[in-house]
Amino acid sequence: MPNSPTSVLVVGATGGIGRLVVATAQQHGLDVRALVRDPGRAERLLPGAELVPGDLEKPDTLHTAVSGVGAVVFTHGGNGSPDAARRIDYGGVAAVLQALDGRTPRLTLMTSIGVSRRGAYGGSTGQLLDWKRRSERLVRASGAPYTIVRPGWFDAVGPGDHRLVLEQTDTGDGGIGRDQLAEVLVRSLLTDTAVNRTFELFAEAGPAPTDWTGLFGALAPDPAGGLDAAGDPATLPAVSEEPPTVQEDLARLAG
Ligand SMILES: NC(=O)c1ccc[n+]([C@@H]2O[C@H](COP(=O)([O-])OP(=O)(O)OC[C@H]3O[C@@H](n4cnc5c(N)ncnc54)[C@H](OP(=O)(O)O)[C@@H]3O)[C@@H](O)[C@H]2O)c1
Q: Is 231 helix (H, G, I), strand (E, B) or coil?
């Protein structure tokens, strides 16, 4: 099992979830580096974080951000359009992994419920989810110890919904508080039983967790050497059916 990281790069650090991840990681004693496009704005949003300028659409700008870092949390996202999903949601993961150049820090990737429910969502939502599913495949192919969190609907929770529900098979539905999601993303970096697990995340009525090792440890690990999550349907596309850019990114990671 990998050692707990002492530093983390937050990708999407100025976003709604990223800001909470930065604060939560700081509370857990991690040195936090934030990838930011506008350092002036980020300085106000992210007190205490090391700000490193970079743009996920410009891979050459990412080398300083990933240099020497013990972990990476991905919370970035585009505007929801299929093109932005390809360029940013997926492309950002590809670009950071490429910048890592074979190094294998601990990774945590936030995607979404529904990524493996192909055909359940049409139009741009279906395409967005497909690009997020493909970004999961890159992380599994990277050789780094990882956790992939597929959150439910942000803040669709009631006042007593403190119990965290971690599911596999991607068939559930529900909400999760942004604070709860940030805590899970950071805890996944610090808890060895979270390694190589993929799960959907919801909250329901009940007490907040105290046993993080047990919470993550109850999950099945993803199949070793595979590209998909434990419990994903066998009907997901073969690599040869993915867009050429995905095939090339996967081949680069395998080489
Ligand atoms: N809403 C839901 O219920 C729900 C549920 C499950 C999953 N999700 C997913 O959660 C994500 C949204 O999370 P959020 O609300 O935290 O997002 P957000 O507030 O829109 O933040 C997006 C982050 O990505 C960064 N970013 C975008 N393009 C970039 C680029 N080219 N280079 C570097 N950084 C870039 C943004 O930086 P700037 O500040 O510089 O723009 C920002 O920090 C979406 O991908 C969505 O699909 C949402």
A: coil
Residues 197, 223: Cα–Cα separation, whole Å: 9
- The CATH H-level (homologous superfamily) assignment of domain 7-254 is NAD(P)-binding Rossmann-like Domain (3.40.50.720)
Query: Could you please report the per-residue DSSP string of 2-18?
Result: PPPPSEEEEETTTSHHH
The best mutation among 33, 76, 96, 200 to test binding of ligand 1, ranked by most ligand atoms within 8 Å of the C-beta, falls on 76
Q: Which residue has the tokens 């039983």?
A: 193
Confidence of residue 1 (pLDDT cuts 50, 70, 90): low
Query: Which of helix, strand or coil describes residue 153?
Result: strand
Q: Mean pLDDT for the chain? A: 97
157 Cβ closer than 6 Å to some ligand 1 atom: no
Number of neighbouring beta carbons within 10 Å of residue 67: 13
On the question of pLDDT at 228 being above 60, the answer is yes
Measured in whole angstroms, how far is the alpha carbon of residue 82 from the centre of its chain? 18
Domains of the chain, by residue range, sit at: 7-254
* Of residues 147, 166, 165, the one with CA closest to residue 4: 147
Atom of ligand 1 nearest to the CA of 12: 43
The CA-based dihedral angle spanning residues 209, 233, 174, 136, taken in that order and rounded to the nearest 10 degrees: 70
What is the reported pLDDT for 119?
A: 84
What amino acid occupies position 50? E
175 lines ligand 1 (CB under 6 A): no
Is the full-model pTM beyond 0.85? Answer: yes
